[in-house]
Design a protein that fits this description.
By secondary structure, this protein is α+β, with helices and mostly antiparallel strands. It has helices spanning 2-10, 83-97, 114-118, 121-138, 153-160, 199-221, 261-269, 279-299, 322-330, 334-388, 394-401, and strands at 22-29, 34-41, 55-56, 66-69, 108-112, 148-150, 171-175, 186-190, 241-242, 252-253, 314-315, 318-319. Among the domains are: 2-161 and 317-336, 2-Layer Sandwich (Nucleotidyltransferase, domain 5); 251-306, no CATH class.
């Protein structure tokens, strides 16, 4: 029941009028496109052993606040000055959902993965510099130099993993606790990344290999294969496989790869494919289906008859993305900051109460001293006034003051 209630709560629209909610933005700059994720969390509960309760923000229609654009950021390697314009729609989208009053305290992280890792370091630096220079001019998010980076494959794997794996050779350890000396939230996970073996990089290598073999065959046979749409270069390898989602068998031969592009485009224009399909997916679907077949069955050795392999985009209505792990890791010290601020407020509040009482007593004491001084001064003036207006007492006054008498009377001579 508790799990069900938590699931219902997570799917509710985010209450943007709640002043106690904090927000965070993560932009995943991948090889084929970039996506922005907006997260939110309430104030920390004060327990240093608990992590922040970070959830994906949902709009008024209870849909996750996510937006994707294409192509990948690495496509701007030759024109890094256009990167900020490229990523601006994602940040504008996030800015529309995060309350305006929260912008200056909302951290923004731009994390680049495989596509950027392939680029030379000089090109990576040029792209990041453009982001760091232009974004603060147009957006008020909390965005510093350390918030834009090219993360390693190991970091990406650590962000995506949240359970301990039994492995000896590729173990990574990270601490999600707000105190680096605490080990309660230290996790050891299996991390393996194979740079250059993703779908896009594999397709590029495959195209280069196919072009080289076709040119060699043309040179040997004296043909013109692959040089015009009328004589395409046909692939006779295993990359003719494709997914048939209506089949009980997860992988089988399909006529999709054999269909001419003009026919596929015409079907797309008529809306015969799924709503999330686009031209980019249409163009690369054939190769990626075959690539997945090779990765799972030839690479990971899953039997072709294995029927229990399923893909998961969401778990309890939460998208399975490494970006959640990334913001959880980067905000791990915020609970400690909140706890310290609460402690400071408590100490400050007690000091204010004490100082209020102390200041009142000090004021009353000072007021009493001043009042007593005034009274003593008035009494002394009264004494002086009385002696001045009573002549018989005047000599004693001068004698009492230690001063010579004025106009002393001469005593008559008895003689």
């Amino acid at each position: 029941m508790g799990r069900y209630l938590a699931r219902v709560t997570d799917t509710e629209a985010t209450d943007t009028k709640n002043p106690n909610l904090n927000y965070g933005i993560v932009v995943d700059c991948g090889s084929s496109g970039s996506r922005v994720f907006v997260y939110c969390w309430p104030r920390h509960n004060g327990n240093p052993h608990d992590l922040l309760d970070i959830k994906q923000m949902r709009d008024s229609h209870r849909k996750p606040v996510v937006m994707k654009i294409k192509p990948g950021i690495s496509e701007f390697a030759a024109s890094p000055d256009k990167v900020s314009d490229y990523i601006s729609p994602l940040l504008s989208f996030a800015a529309e959902h995060v309350p305006r009053s929260k912008h200056k305290e909302t951290p923004l992280y731009i994390l680049c993965t495989a596509g950027m890792r392939i680029l030379p370091e000089s090109q990576q630096k040029a792209i990041l510099e453009d982001l760091l220079t232009d974004i603060p001019v147009h957006f008020d998010f909390l965005f510093s130099d350390s918030h834009a980076e090219v993360i390693s494959g190991k970091q990406e794997g650590e962000n995506g993993q949240r359970s301990e794996e039994v492995a000896k050779n590729l173990l990574a350890e990270f601490n999600l606790g707000c105190d680096a000396h605490q080990t309660e939230h230290v996790y050891r996970v299996y991390v393996a990344t194979f740079l250059g073996f993703g779908g896009n990089a594999a397709r590029q290598r495959y195209q280069e290999s196919l072009a080289a073999s076709t040119l060699l065959r043309n040179r040997v046979l004296g043909t013109q294969t692959g040089l015009s749409p009328d004589s395409p270069s046909l692939d006779q390898s295993q990359f003719l496989y494709s997914i048939n989602p209506h089949s009980s068998h997860p992988w089988e031969f399909s006529d999709y790869c054999a269909t001419r592009w003009a026919v596929l485009r015409e079907r797309f224009d008529r809306g015969l494919y799924a709503s999330h399909a686009d031209l980019h997916r249409l163009k690369y679907q054939c190769f990626k289906s075959a690539w997945m077949f090779e990765v799972f069955h030839r690479g990971f050795s899953f039997p072709e008859s294995y029927g229990s392999l399923k893909t998961a985009l969401q778990v309890y209505d939460k998208e399975v993305q490494w970006t959640l792990g990334a913001i959880l890791y980067r905000t791990r010290f915020l609970p400690l900051r909140d706890i310290q601020q609460d402690n400071f407020r408590g100490i400050h509040s007690r000091w204010r109460s004490f100082s209020f009482v102390y200041n009142h007593f000090l004021f009353l004491g000072c007021f009493g001293v001043v009042l007593l001084s005034i009274l003593l001064y008035l009494l002394r003036l009264r004494r002086i006034h009385r002696r001045l207006f009573h002549p018989g007492s005047a000599p004693s006054l001068w004698i009492h003051e230690g001063l010579p008498q004025k106009n002393p009377q001469k005593t008559p001579n008895p003689l």
